[in-house]
Design brief:
Serine Threonine Protein Phosphatase 5, Tetratricopeptide repeat, 14 strands, single chain, 41% helix, four-stranded antiparallel beta sheet, alpha+beta, 12 helices, 386 residues, Jelly Rolls
Length: 386
């Protein structure tokens, strides 16, 4: 929280005379006056806020924390400490917004590895924040028994371990027989045309290939694949948004998918893409986001020494055939050959889910995203009202 002014400002020399020479009852009056004298010091605001909180001067402390946020809006400790103060005051909904904003800066509290040097009072606040988030965010409101995994300490009932959302009591098995699905026959009749379209079009559309894993957050788990051409995607749909510059090249595929119950949170499929795994590459074992969808692979170009492993079950792709699996199980893929492996990937709704349950899941994700998008507005509204 340092800035140009606080680098030369001796904060201890300002605070200590008050703490050592003045009665504690006068601190709520004297310490805020320091902020008036040095309004651009985020560090001073934070130090004053913590001291005032410790002596129970919550209104003055709250004001100092908010002032600190104005100066240092990306400091996670301010959100954490302000959230703890608000929760102490009984303002749990606003505290929850603070904790969520803190989490966007630190990563999931459930997986956060705190250093041994972390101050006890900070550890205490992280624990309190996690409890508040689990209490308020762990359970789905739209679909019965659904839960947001990153805010739930409840164990899974099967070897599945999705890291975003989980719906219990769905049929759980790693590999699914493609022929059991009602849409399989009609889709299969179009596979030869899909393959021909791919070979006729892929080279033209390949300029739109991008690393499938983009972002620093993937570099520690997938060091050889993240932000590289070792695993690329040619996406017709990504996160529910159609990439028209690509999808226009594949009208036959789009037509074939119209009769498939593609998973999506909007009217569009959530993802449809051609996946190119480079020679000699391995997608290391990992879990998917949820268990309410299944992943479908259509094998396009499969060299030797290629396989998919789901929960210890190894499957070799068969060219021009479908493989369907539940990626909420631990899974990995391997290409030990000397050329690229290419499969078409899309997701379908879990067949146990009714139309009503699918809509409930869509509503759950929509409402959660709306809440996330309004976190800062929630904090601003509280501040304006108080």
């Amino acid at each position: 929280m340092t800035n140009e002014e606080t680098q030369t400002l001796n904060i201890d020399s300002l605070i200590q005379p008050i703490l050592e020479c003045e009665p504690q009852t006068s601190w709520p009056l004297l310490l805020p006056k320091l902020l008036d004298a040095y309004p651009q010091s985020a560090e001073l605001s934070y130090r004053v806020a913590v001291i005032l909180e410790q002596i129970g001067a919550l209104a003055e402390s709250e004001k100092a924390y908010f002032h600190c946020l104005d100066l240092a809006p990306k400091n996670y400790l301010v959100y954490l400490y302000l959230g703890y103060l608000l929760e102490t005051k009984g303002e749990e909904n606003t505290a929850l917004a603070c904790y969520a904003l803190c989490e966007t800066l630190t990563g999931s509290f459930n997986r956060l590895q705190l250093a041994n040097s972390t101050a006890p009072q900070t550890l205490k606040r992280f624990q309190k924040a996690w409890q508040c988030m689990e209490r308020n965010l762990g359970t789905a409101s739209s679909i019965t028994s659904g839960r947001w995994v990153q805010y739930s300490s409840k164990p899974f009932e099967t070897p599945q371990a999705p890291h975003l959302f989980y719906v219990p009591n769905l049929t759980a098995k790693p590999i699914w027989l493609a022929q059991q699905f009602s849409w399989y026959e009609s889709f299969s009749t179009m596979i030869p045309d899909i393959i021909r379209e791919f070979h006729a079009t892929f080279n033209t559309a390949s300029s739109h290939l991008t690393p499938y894993l983009s972002g620093k957050e993937y570099e520690s788990v997938f060091p050889k694949l993240a932000n590289s051409n070792n695993w690329q995607a040619l996406s017709l749909f990504k996160e529910g948004v159609e990439n028209v510059s690509v999808s226009t090249h594949f009208p036959i595929l789009k037509k074939a998918l119209e009769k498939v119950p593609c998973y999506g949170l909007t009217a569009s499929p959530y993802e449809v893409f051609y996946s190119k795994l480079a020679k000699g590459q391995t997608i290391t074992p990992h879990y998917g986001l949820s268990n309410h969808s299944l992943t479908v692979h259509l094998a396009i170009d499969i060299p030797h020494d290629c396989y998919l492993d789901v929960n210890g079950e190894r499957v070799s792709w068969q060219e021009h055939q479908l493989t369907i699996f539940d990626d909420s199980y631990l899974h990995m893929a391997h290409n030990g050959s000397d050329r690229d492996r290419i499969v078409l990937i899309f997701s379908i709704w879990h067949p146990d889910l009714t139309a009503t349950q699918r809509q409930e899941i869509k509503s759950e994700f929509k409402n959660r995203q709306r809440w996330i998008d309004n976190l800062n507005a929630t904090l601003d509204q509280y501040r304006n009202d108080h």
